[in-house]
Amino acid sequence: MPNIITDKEKIEEVLTRSVDRIYPTKQALEELLSSGKQIKVYVGIDPTADYVHLGHSTNYLVLERLWKLGHKIIVLVGDFTAMIGDPSDKTAARAPLTKEQVRDNLKSFKEQIGKILDFQDLENPVDFVYNSAWLSVLDFGKLVELASHFTVQQMLERDMFEKRLKDNKPLYVHEFFYPLLQGYDSVALEVDLEVGGTDQTFNMLAGRTLARRYLNREKFVLTTPLLVNPITNEKLMSKSAGTGIGLNESPENMFGKVMALPDESVLQVFRDCTRVSVDEIEQKKLRLERGENPRNVKLELAREVTALYHGASASAAAEHRWKQIFSEKKIPDVIPEVRVEKEKQLVDVLVEQQFTKSKTEARRLFGQGAVEFDETVVKDVSFVLDHEGILRVGKKVLVRVAIHN
């Protein structure tokens, strides 16, 4: 078993950095972490898309800090719960996913999360598990038993359920199953602590209830803040909305997307999505308060985030590329993005995205040299998009092209 570190400063960082609330109390968890006992901690993620985004990285960075203290870390993929759909923060029921969709989505999850957590460590291995291992064999009698620990009134306390009832929108019975099953994950794994975003509070506390009933033990819950624009309160990362910065983005796309974040979100992203020290972040805050151009600090953020997932040299190359395109050509930081399939013909994209009215018009623009991809004029009508870049069509269209498989 690894040596358990009880350094007060390191524990304090775990308990404060990227932390919204701790249940039952911060003091109780601090006592547990100071006891020298190894605790078992997990984060769950549902493969509702084929990428893990920057907002999720907050949880894995919290796990990394706990792992460095010597604690047992589990990454749980909700391959079973993804087929039900998490109703958290949803104004309508999620469309259920098929087994095939779930399987396709999670193909590179371990690789993406492995850019933060070390799955190769042998001394204190990080486990990567799937909740279908126990949920797929759960019989109906057990499900009824789980449901008996909660009331309908408790379920209806969820903000989104209340809102949907008030707005006369459908609320389906199967949506009540989700917190029961996520809660049962805590029992199956016999964890001491669950980490997750504030939107998961209800589900994680359901696990706390079930841990008390079935394991006769306390399960701590640590909630982390969601990445939001502090002025508009709009989510910056959302898998269901198809927005955000995926950990599987190319270096160029990742760098450009960080630079497109609102200036006012930079300090939070530094705190919640990087390994930069709290003291260094405080110095950046002081620079901004003294009137320094936010773009300077945002460049440092883009450099840091891209290096975390692709290495320093790839980050430097992406920065050079970004400066060539956006600074020297005076292209605005924030431009629309279109996601297209890899190996798609550019002429088809122009029509599908309604950049041109027809293929005939598209071919005419190619012939006039009015189509440019990545600073290169494209005249070949059979040109295929095989990488991400900036697309210009005439004087009116300027978009970032993102490739998905």
From TrEMBL:
Q: What is its EC number?
A: 6.1.1.1
Q: What class of enzyme is it?
A: ligase
Q: Which InterPro entries match?
A: aa-tRNA-synth_I_CS, aa-tRNA-synth_Ic, Rossmann-like_a/b/a_fold, S4_RNA-bd_sf, SYY-like_C, Tyr-tRNA-ligase, Tyr-tRNA-ligase_bac-type
Glycosyltransferase recorded as keyword: no
BP GO annotations: tyrosyl-tRNA aminoacylation
Q: Report the domain of life of the source organism.
A: Bacteria
CDD domains membership:
S4 (cd00165), TyrRS_core (cd00805)
The UniProt keywords, alphabetically, are: Aminoacyl-tRNA synthetase, ATP-binding, Ligase, Nucleotide-binding, Protein biosynthesis, RNA-binding
Drop me one GO molecular function for this one. Answer: ATP binding
Pfam family of the protein (one)? SYY_C-terminal
Listed under GO cellular component are: cytosol
The catalysed reaction is:
tRNA(Tyr) + L-tyrosine + ATP = L-tyrosyl-tRNA(Tyr) + AMP + diphosphate + H(+)
Domain Tyrosine--tRNA ligase SYY-like C-terminal: from-to ranges: 333-389
Record family assignment? Belongs to the class-I aminoacyl-tRNA synthetase family.
List the protein's name: Tyrosine--tRNA ligase
The protein's organism comes out as: Candidatus Ryanbacteria bacterium RIFCSPLOWO2_02_FULL_45_11c
